Amino acid sequence: MTNTLWQDDHIYAAPDCPAIDADFQCAAEGLIEIASLLASLPATREINPLRHLLRAIRRQANAVRKQAWNSQAFAYNRLSRNGRDEAARVLLSRGQQLQATLAQLIKPVTLFWLNAPEEQVRALLQDPELFELAYLIRHDRRLQDQTLSLESEQLIEGLAVDGLQAWGDLYDSLVGRLSPRVEGEAMGLAQADNLLSHPDRARRAHAWHGIQAAWAAEQETVAAILNAINGWRNEIAAQRGKARRLDALDVSCHQSHIERRTLETLMGQAEAHKELGRRALRAMASAQGIDDFAPWDLYAPPPAAAQIRLGFGQALTLVAEAFAAFDPEMGAFARMMADRGWIDAAPSDNRRSGAYCTEYADPAEPRVFLTFEGTMDNVITLAHELGHAWHSWLLRDLPLEQRDYPMTLAETASLFAEALVRDALLARSQTREQRLDIAWMDGERVVSLLLDIPSRFHFERALVAGRTEGYLGAGQLRAMMKSAKQQWYGDTLSQYDELFWASKSHFSIAEFGFYNYPYLFGYLFSLGLYAQKARVGADFVPAYRALLADTGRMSAESLVEKHLGVDIREPAFWEESLRYVEEVVSRLEWLV
């Protein structure tokens, strides 16, 4: 097993190969067929003909949707590996345009489902094929009063390609070409990021300052990106909100398939327990003998660590064995991902930082991206992304619409996978130093989820509110970021990363805002599931699979109530998970 590049030749040979043009031609013909079918929609009123028409439109639309999905996934994966791949950038734009054209074209169907009389909707959903859409239709109908005219809705979709989406693409392009200098050496952003977990504090500091300098040179560009994205969202909300104005968090909760009350309960629990994160940070600072704990120390390894460097094959085996101890098929799946070349982990020039899991629509195959350089952090990241991939793999035979799960539930499988690997490492540890290594990783996770994530949420709320008043310059954004970090980290840091809004890609995702609290939700939710695993035993595996299978067809509240029998709108569920966090922090304090 090697950390080789993706094996995607059966998808496309290259971003400008003839097969792509042939598929786009096929998609164009599908659009023509959809337009022909739509011509009959306004005149069709009887239920049976309407069912046949809606089924036919859906089939054609999903065929085109798969083409748009595949082309964008292929292009984005290429750009992640090399941000200067111009052919991939062109393909990404083509895929986005196809997706927007399809969304424009089928707006009459979207609006039909939103505005049709309830009795008609119930009758149509008696059809088994249309019933596959029932949850999403019910979910979307909650925002009936937020729709505009057909012409306006189509205009928004069309303008978004060169408007909203283009700003997100600009950020991704920026990440691909950024080249920090660390002690005089130019390197890719992903390589510089990996140095933040280097055992030598001076080396970490040089890496952090090099990354900061690179982003500082681009801070006005990123400020323009954030202003454009949030300005767009604010204007759309204003146009839609003639009858009832939704704020950005209302929209986010709808996208995340949770209720506002659930989010408020979650963040209230984070506020009440932020001292747990601070305790973990103080323990790590004390263990390292650092009085001026700084941002470049946040990912430092424990002082007594053996500094083991693993090859990719060793790391994959470690993760697969941990998965297999829980579910043999899950372990076999992790090996299959590597054997089929579905993991890209090899360092490369102009490589984007971070890690992610994506998938192709047809064939339904997941892909994992990270930059693997042998650290234990890399191992946990591999487990995290393979957890995402396993989630996608379990849904591969479901209807296309049910394979798209919300942000909150997206992090469940990934964080659960992390817990499996950390517990496996803890079980095989034989010395205090080895146990400290695991406790240290747990402590880093607590800091990240109880301090970093809420500080991002705090900042983004201020960003959205501030943008309604006007343009926010880089200086203002730096001040807002510092304030957010200060509120959550308190005196545990000697200084704050004021440019975090620029370096963290989640703020510049065009498709949705507030991609922060889903991580906290997923963390605490996965801990709740982990507690169930201990109580239920072997019977938990099929229950866990069933829960993941429902993530694309139920709200978060309904999912948890069905599979766990609890109400996540109330603090009790989260408090149980936070008791586990308390144990994690206490173990770290005891070991250091």
Could you tell me the mean pLDDT?
Answer: 93
Proportion of beta-strand residues: under 5%
- The helix/strand class is mainly alpha
Query: What is the CA–CA distance across the termini?
Result: 36 Å
Count of alpha and pi helical runs: 26
Strand order of the largest sheet: 3-5-4
Percent helix among the residues? 55-70%
Residue windows where pLDDT falls under 50 for at least 5 positions: none
Rg, nearest Å = 24 Å
- Assign an overall shape: globular
Polypeptide structure, described:
This protein is mainly α and 592 residues long. 67% of the residues lie in helices and 3% in strands. The protein is built from 26 helices and five strands. A three-stranded mixed sheet has the order 3-5-4, sandwiched between helices. Strands 1-2 form a two-stranded antiparallel ribbon. A hairpin with a 4-residue loop joins strand 4 and strand 5. Helix 8 runs parallel beside helix 9, helix 16 packs antiparallel against helix 17 and helix 16 crosses helix 19. The model has no long low-confidence stretch (mean pLDDT 93).
